[in-house]
Amino acid sequence: MAPAPGETVIIKNDATAFCERDLLPALRKADIEWLIVAGVWTEACVAASVRDAIAEGFHVLLVKDACGSGTIAMHETAILNLANRLYGGAVADTSRACALMAGQRAEVWVGERPAPILFDYETARGAYQSL
C-alpha cells in the first residue's frame, strides 16, 4: 500500500492526528464531512483522534476490527467507550466500511443518542460483537 501520486500524506507525531497543523486545513479545504478511522492503541491514539474529530464537527465511522490495543479487553471496551461518544457517527467492521467506501450500502451501528451502550465486565464482549 502506498499513497497515490499527488495524494496528501500527513505524518502523525502525537496521540491525536489533529496535532498536525496540516490535517484540519486539508480536511476543510476538501469539504470532508465524514472520517473513517482505524489505528493502533484504540484507547489512546484512536480515541484521541476520534474525540478531536468530533470536536471539530466531523462525523466518524470507526472501523472496529481495524484498530488494536494491548489486549482484546482493552480494545473492545475502548471501542464501546468511543461508540458511546459517536452521536452522529457510526461503527462498522472492515468489510462494511470497504463497501461504504465503494459506494455500496452496508448496515452499520449508528449512535442515535449520547451513551447508548451501557456495559459491564460480563456484558462488554456481547455489546462489542453487536456493533
Give a written overview of the molecule:
- The chain is of the alpha/beta class.
- The chain has helices at residues 23-29, 42-55, 72-83, 94-101, 124-129; strands at residues 34-40, 59-68, 90-92, 109-110.
- The two termini are 28 Å apart.
- The multimeric state of the shown protein is single chain
CATH class descriptor name:
Alpha Beta
**Topology as H/E string?**
HEHEHEHEH
Q: Tell me the major beta sheet.
A: 4 strands, mixed
Number of helices: 5
With strands numbered from the N-terminus, the spatial order across the biggest sheet is 1-2-3-4
Low-confidence stretches: none
**Approximate helicity band:** 25-40%
Radius of gyration (CA) equals 15 Å
Tell me, briefly, the overall form.
globular
So, the CATH homologous superfamily?
Answer: Isochorismatase-like
Total domains? 1
Average predicted confidence as pLDDT: 94
Give the CATH topology.
Rossmann fold
The SS-based structural class is alpha/beta
Compact overview of the structure:
The chain is of the alpha/beta class and 131 residues long. It is built from five helices and four strands; from the N terminus they run αβαβαβαβα.
Task: Itemize the secondary structure elements and their pairings.
Elements: H1 23-29, E1 34-40, H2 42-55, E2 59-68, H3 72-83, E3 90-92, H4 94-101, E4 109-110, H5 124-129
Parallel strand pairs: 1-2, 2-3
Antiparallel strand pairs: 3-4
Helix pairs in contact: 2-3
